[in-house]
Amino acid sequence: MTESPQQHCTLTVAIATWNRAALLNETLMSLEQVVVPHGLRWELIVVDNNSSDETAEVVQRYSSKLPIRYLLETAPGQSHARNCAIDHSDSDILLWTDDDVRVDKNWLSGTLDAFERFDADLVYGRSQPWWESEPPCWYAPIFDGRFALLDHGPNAKVCSKSTGYGLNHAIRRSALEQIGGYRTDMGLRHGKGAGGEDIDLFVRAHQAGLRVVYTPHAVVNHFIPQDRCKKKFTRSRVWLGSEDYFHLLRSSNADLPAILGIPRYLYRQQFTHLAKYLAAALRRDAPNTFFYELKLLQFTGLLRYAMRNRLRTNQAATETSVTSD
């Protein structure tokens, strides 16, 4: 009988967590139900990013149920936690999910099938909503990115530009060795920032010519709490994410003309966003009104950060010049 490549593959499922013990328990419960492909050698690493709740105790409950390891990373930030998992794993493939998801029972096999079928370097899958309550009245599919929801269709495919999210992606160790780990100047840091370290990884993978594959057969359900459905929360997350967004734009548009480090096309784009915002408001189209409000707010925050960044850079250059003299 011909052996499946899965029999020679080692895989680490990795979760970075911070103060979500109850939700983490739901995630680990779903992992108990996952179908493990025959012959696959796998482990589960949970990296505690210095939680103050019962995270360690929750992980301990599963020590006899899952091939689980608990690691503590005290440096604040999801990127530090992700890199900690990389440093403590020697598996061929690292498969990531978050501490607020339920994974489908075929999650492992769906991911590995995509690696084998396409000889992939990086694989990402679908994420569906797991609402705590009813979706907000302003919700529409245009907001899926705000909730890390993703569905790129029913067919697996090699992608030349598209990106996935941190809650459902996997990468070969050889690819990580080529492009590096997760940037620690980006990503959530104990409730601050807006993420982006996962999207940056996809950008670098594409720039390096790696084979990035989407599969609809690796599915997770992402918990969306009621508080996250409030406009105030969404506005705050957009505003506070200006720094991460600036870094992401710099890495993904380095070859484009820019003003203050912001690609010039974004300045022109704001006129279109303003017109669409006003048109949607006149139609009383709640989803599109809020969507384009956020686009305008995002650019305002981005411009504010870019101006402050330029001022800091100029001050540092002046101080260096004075010291040299």
Summary of the model, kept short:
With 325 residues, the protein is of the alpha/beta class. The chain has helices spanning 21-32, 55-61, 78-87, 107-118, 173-179, 197-207, 231-240, 242-252, 264-283, 286-324, and strands at residues 10-17, 41-48, 68-72, 93-98, 101-103, 122-131, 157-159, 168-172, 212-224, 258-259, 262-263. Strand 1 (10-17), helix 1 and strand 2 form a beta-alpha-beta unit.
* Total number of beta strands: 11
SSE series: EHEHEHEEHEEEHHEHHEEHH
Instruction: Give the name of the CATH superfamily of the largest domain.
Output: Spore Coat Polysaccharide Biosynthesis Protein SpsA, Chain A
Unreliable spans are none
Shape: globular
Secondary structural class: alpha/beta
Q: In the CATH hierarchy, what is the architecture of the largest domain at level 2?
A: Alpha-Beta Complex
Portion of residues in helices?
A: 40-55%
How many structural domains does the protein architecture include?
A: 2
CATH topology of the largest domain, anyone? Spore Coat Polysaccharide Biosynthesis Protein SpsA, Chain A
Mean pLDDT rating: 92
Strand count, sense and barrel status of the largest sheet are: 9 strands, mixed
Put simply, the count of helices is 10
In angstroms, what is the radius of gyration? 21 Å
Distance between the termini: 76 Å
- How much strand? 15-25%
CATH class bucket of the largest domain: Alpha Beta
